[in-house]
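re: that chain from earlier
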Amino acid sequence: MPKANSEWWAEKLAANEARDRRHDEALRSADWTVVRVWEHEDAESAAEKVRRVVMATAGAGWKSDG
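^ sequence. v structure.
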């Protein structure tokens, strides 16, 4: 949590989290699988996160090169 303007940041981050949860719920209710990747995440780690979710949800018919 930033020390400067900490009250504003706390409110902003709480609102962002609530918005993300609402969006997650709406997507899941439409049968989507939600994978959240943050801009500061390493691209390879983010891709691996997505790959794991795809492999876990795609079923036995999924084929992967790696």
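The chain has one domain: 6-58.
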